[in-house]
């Protein structure tokens, strides 16, 4: 009986630094955020862009992901 098949776990043929990134297939958009959360999204985007000096496109994607996460868990930790 084999508990761990180390040959399947460790692939020695991989070379460090040879990871390739593939384009995202499901990109989030502002339309994916519920309408009642759009102001929250805009505020998050502005804070990341202005205070964090993050480019707008990146800030918007990060804000979308953050807003969806907060909205999904709102019932656990209501803040407003």
Report on this model:
The chain has 80 residues and is an all-alpha fold. The protein has a domain at 26-75. It is built from 3 helices and no strands. The protein has helices at 6-9, 38-50, 56-72. The longest helix has 17 residues, at 56-72.
Set down the secondary structure blueprint:
Blueprint: H1 6-9, H2 38-50, H3 56-72
List the defining traits of the structure above.
mainly alpha; 0% strand
Question: Short summary of the structure?
Answer:
The protein is mostly helical and 80 residues long.
The helical percent reads 40-55%
Biggest beta sheet attributes: none
Apparent shape: globular
Total of DSSP H or I helical runs spanning 4+ residues: 3
Order of helices and strands: HHH
Q: Which class do the helix and strand fractions yield?
A: mainly alpha
Summarize model confidence as the mean pLDDT: 76
Poorly predicted runs: 15-19
Q: In angstroms, what separates the terminal alpha carbons?
A: 56 Å
As a whole number of angstroms, the C-alpha radius of gyration is 20 Å
- Number of strand elements: 0
Task: Tell me the β content.
Answer: under 5%
